[in-house]
Each structure stands twice: as C-alpha cells, then as structure tokens.
Amino acid sequence: MVSAEQGECASGVNARADRAVINLATSQIHRFEKSMKPRSLAHRAPLLGLVVAWGTGSALTHTGTVTAGATFWACMALTCLALAWIGRKQRILCAIGIGFALTCAGALRTDQRQQRLAAWDELGLPPREARLVLRIERLFAPPEADEARISGLAEIVRSEPHLADLAGQRIQFSTTWRSDSGKALRGVEFTALGLLEPVPRHPPAGSFTRYLADSGVNFSLRRARLLDTPTEAGPWTRFCDVAGMRLEKILRHGLQDNERAANLYVAMLLGRKQELSVEQTDWFIRSGTMHLFAISGLHIAGIAVALQTLLTLARVHKFAGFIAGTALLWIYVDITGGAPSAVRAFWMVTCLWASRQFRTPGNSLAALATSALGILIVDPHQLFSASFQMSYGIVAALLFYGVPLQEKWLEAWKPWASLPKISWTWRQHTTEGLGRSILGLVALGLAATLISTPATLGFFGLLAPGGFFVNLVLIPASTLVLFAGVAALLTGLLGLTPLTLIFNHAAALVLVAMESVVGWSLKLPVTSWPAAFTIPTLASLATVLMLSMLAAGYIRGWRNRDGGYWAPYAALGLMLVLGVKAVSVATP
Q1: Is residue 84's pLDDT more than 80?
Q2: Residue 103 contacts by C-beta under 8 Å, 6 or more apart in sequence?
C-alpha cells in the first residue's frame, strides 16, 4: 500500500516534470518563432533579377558607356543564351548566362527604340526650316485662347523628300493652334512648318533637352505654325475626351464658389496638373507633395479597390469580375490621359489581380517586378524618367524596407499586454489603434524618404527634409479625398446628384485643410531649400546604391549584425554630408 505522503510526493514530482516539459516546449516555440522570417520577408520575385539585367543593358546604351551596334548586341545575346543552355545543369553558370543575355537584349531594345540617326550626330547638322506631318502622342498643355500655341510629343508621319529619314522619329513640337482647327487630341495628324533642331545625345543635366533625350526624343520643332486643317481624332480618343469632360463636370458640381479647391480636386482625381495655379504648383513641389497630383499607384489602387468592392457587392463571378474590373480600370487610365505613371500603376495592379485570379504564388514584389519588366520591354526609355525612378523606386523601398520595419514595430507595440483586450477601456483601444497607425505611417515614410531624397535632389534641385512630416499628414488626407472623389463620380454617373454634392464638399473641405498645412509648412526654414549634388551623376548612383542596400537588407532579413534598419540611413546621411551643396537662387 502507498502511503498518503508518498502519493503527495509523487504528484509533486509529476507536477514539476509537467512544468519542465511545458517550459521546454515554450522555449522551443520561441526559438522557432525567432528563426521564422516575417511574412513580408518571405516573398520571392525571380523576375527582379531579370529587371536589373535588362535595365543595366538599357543604361549602357543610353549613356553611351558602350558604343556598339544592334548586330553586336544581338550576337552577344545569342552567345550568352547558348552558354546558358550548355551549362544548364550548373545553376550558377546558367543564371549568369541568362543575366548577360538579358543585359544584351536590353541594350539591343534600347538602341532600336532610340533610333538615333548617325548622320545627324556625326555631321552636327544645324537647325533648319522643315515642313512635317505629325501625329500627336501626348500634349503638355491644351490651348486656352482663340489663337494659342500647343506643345507636346508627336511622331513624324511624313516629311519633305530631303528629310525622308525622319519618318517614324519622335519629336517635341510647339506650334500655333487655331480655334477653328478642332480639338488637339491624341492621334490627330497635322502639318506644321517650323525650325527643326536635333536633340543632343547627352544634354546638360536638369535641362528640358535632357528630359527629351531621356524620353527617346531625337528632334524638336520650335516656333512652328499650323499649315492646314488637322485630321479628326479617332472614335475612342473622342469618347475618352467626352468622358473626361463629363467626369470633370461631376467633380466640379457644387464647387463653383471655391475654384481653387475645385482645381486641386480635378488635378488629384483626373491628373490634370495644368489646372493648378503657379503658386499651388510651387507650393507642392517645394513641400515634396507634388506626387499627390499625378495619377499613380495611390490613385489606381483606390479606384481598383472601389471597383472590386462594387463588383463583389453585385455578386459578379470572380473571373468575370476580374475581366470587367481590368477593363474599367484601363478606361479610367485612358480617360485621364494615359500618363506613363498611370499606365505603370495599372499594370502593377493588374499583375497582382491576375496572380490572385489564377491562384499563382503571387505577391506585391513579384507584381512589381513583372510590371516593370513589361514596361521596360515596351519602352526602355521610361527607366530614365523621374516618374519611373520615383514610382518604382519608392514602391520597392516600401516592400523591401517599409513593410518589414512596420511589422517589427507593430510586433513590439503591445501596450497593456498583461491585460486581456476584452477588459480594455475605450481609451486603451484608441491609444493602441492610434499607435499602430502612427508607427505604420512612420515606417512607410522612412522607406519612401530613402529613395525620394536623392531623386528629388537630382531631378528638382531640392532638399526637402520637412516633406517627410508633411507627407505623414497629407497622404492619409489625400486617401480621404480619393475615396470621396470615387464616390462622387459613381453617384454622379448614376444621377444621384445630392450625394455627389455631399462627397464633393467633403473632399473640398479636406483639400482646403491640406493646402493650409502645406502653406504653413513652407514658412518653416527647415521644410526645403535649393540644393544639388556636387557631381550630377551622383544622383543616379545614390538611387542605385539605396536600392541595392535595401534589396540586400531584405534578402538577409535585416539582421542587426549587418547594421539592421539603420545602415541605409547611415549611407544616405554620409552622401548628403559629402556630396551635396547648397544652391543659391537669384531673386527676381
């Protein structure tokens, strides 16, 4: 028989053994959790390496670092592919071969797209009078007066016999446009007589000719005058123009007494930055918030979410909803003018939608890489534009740096962890939610600043440290404006005018507050000031370095022994101290 004391002793031993097992299991779970990567660090994007290789080839051709013809690049690409095939059993050798093949293919595609005429470059031919037939691709600003001038980009359709080699070239034009000539729209063809001038291959940094060269434009037609009646635009272009005017009328409904806010509203929802006054444009550029008025990922994502919500509420089949949503989103992009930034954002959203629709292992990083590769194959010159570098660079920074940092901070933000949430007061719930929102915004803002700082210095000659704090306020506010604008457009198209009026006034109220914040911030001396890199090429090198560090940190899991999340800011600070100078601006 077992005594009572022996039974109690045995039960005590068993209890201690149970506690030891529980403690061991808990420690093993904690070790396992620490060894696991956060979800944001587990994404794969195989196409990202191909984007880097293709972009490297484009840069080699565009900058003239390697001067070789199309035949050379084609032969090199085929040779590298053959080597990759031969070494296909060796993963590293095969990857190197494919990478070099993509580099050569990018250089070849850029050379084909650029279409530089050797005779004009070698002989240095002077400007001359020329009569050209042009097809409008994009307008910088529409005419407003009865006898006005328009400017934009076009394709040369026909020219005089002695200039026959110009056919197919892209050209920047500035010409008169009479009120009785019809509306200047994309696809319209017209004949103009003006001063034809070649665009230098390597113009000075920061100049308008540099923008043209980076866009793949080889010629400029200045001081031109219209010679005949232009052709009529196509049916789709006319539909987009009428639809755009209809949407603008809806957005301006009820805001006739507040023209300034209405112009901001139209600029933000439809991308019509020409509606902004000179003062407004200057304010938003100096505060680093001009990106809010370009149709970009923020706008397209908002429209996409609204469309997806409506199609879901209408119980549309998933595949049919994907097709309808994509088509409607493209119509919106085309109505707003088909700006390159809007097209890029459309493809990013479409790639993400497609991965979910077809149940492929997609993620935001893979969608970003897929859309970037597609855009660069179609038009390699977009790589050298400010909008491409800032939009793709900032989104990449958000995914590489911002989202992991946000997850880390939110994991550490656990107020009142010892209390069950069900017993929290409303103040505790509010504090916890507000803290999560602020930490998330700060993490994403820090990520965007790593790319926007060198890009803003290089393209706009501004250093705007205060823009970080202004964006923390304006980006959430702009989201409210976007959702109010989408609601106003939907209710306006459905004929629900009273609701449209409510949404428009709500958006105008937020816009007035946003403009007041920008105006107040510019009174502070630390918001922004003119500055530039001591060597212009440092801007591109700084952007490449930042992206490389962000990608490396992402791959290695942002380990503390590698510098953690502080390393990119240490490198950026060193570049700003050693490579940036203040620029004096002459006052008129």
Answers
A1: yes
A2: 53, 54, 56, 57, 60
Range of the structural domain that residue 427 is part of: 261-444+465-525
Nearest to 341 by CA among 373, 303, 389, 378: 389
Name all contacts of 539-544 with Cβ < 8 Å and 24+ positions apart. Answer: 539/454, 539/455, 539/457, 539/458, 539/459, 540/458, 542/454, 542/457, 542/458, 542/572, 542/575, 542/579, 543/389, 543/393, 543/451, 543/454, 543/455, 543/458
Tell me how far apart the alpha carbons of residues 290 and 452 are, in angstroms, rounded to a whole number: 12
pLDDT digits (tens, 9 = 90+) for 449-467: 898 888 888 888 888 888 8
Asked if 157 and 180 touch (Cβ cutoff 8 Å), the reply is: no
Based on the domain organization, do 472 and 428 belong to the same domain?
Answer: yes
pLDDT digits (tens, 9 = 90+) for 2-27: 455 545 554 554 555 555 545 555 55
The alpha carbon dihedral of 254, 258, 262, 264 has a sign of negative
Task: Find the angle CA(506)-CA(507)-CA(511) to the nearest 5 degrees.
Answer: 120
38-81 pLDDT per residue, tens: 556 666 777 788 888 999 988 888 877 777 778 888 898 899 98
End of a domain among 56, 85, 114?
114
Backbone angles phi, psi at 147, to 5 degrees: -125, 85
Question: Is residue 588 in a domain?
Answer: no
Shared domain check, 211 and 309: no
Residue 564: C-alpha distances to residues 334, 403, 546, 568 (Å) = 43, 14, 14, 9
Q: What is the pLDDT of residues 160-207, one digit of tens each?
A: 888 888 888 999 999 988 877 888 888 899 999 999 999 888 888 778
> For 532-583, how does the pLDDT look when each residue is reduced to its tens digit (9 = 90+)?
888 888 888 899 999 999 998 988 888 888 888 899 999 999 998 888 887 7
Distance from the first to the final alpha carbon of the chain: 107
Residue owning tokens 């085929």? 78
Q: Which helix (H) or strand (E) holds 532?
A: strand 529-533
Q: What's the pLDDT at 11?
A: 53
Determine the pLDDT at residue 33: 45
**In this structure, is residue 286 part of a structural domain?**
yes
Alpha-carbon span 77 to 105, nearest angstrom: 6
- 28 within domain boundaries: no
The two tokens of residue 116 are 């530089």
Q: Are residues 422 and 324 in the same domain?
A: yes
CATH code at position 172: 2.40.50
One domain for residues 59 and 178: no
pLDDT band per the 50, 70, 90 thresholds, residue 133: very high
Q: What pLDDT was estimated at residue 30? A: 47
| Distance separating alpha carbons of residues 243 and 185, to the nearest angstrom | 13
Examine residue 24 and state whether it is found in any structural domain, yes or no: no
Tell me, yes or no, whether 130 and 110 share the same domain: no
Tokens 């997850």 found at = 407
Domain total of the chain: 3
Chain mean position to CA 164: 38
Surface-to-core class of residue 406, CB atoms within 10 Å of its CB (0-12 exposed, 13-18 middle, 19+ buried): buried
Q: Do 275 and 173 share a domain, yes or no?
A: no
DSSP code of residue 204: P
Same domain, yes or no, for 351 and 436?
Answer: yes
Given a cut of 90, whether residue 228 has pLDDT beyond it is no
Are 272 and 399 in the same domain? yes
Last residue of a domain, one of 480, 496, 525: 525
**Distance in angstroms (rounded) separating the CA atoms of residues 553 and 69:** 37
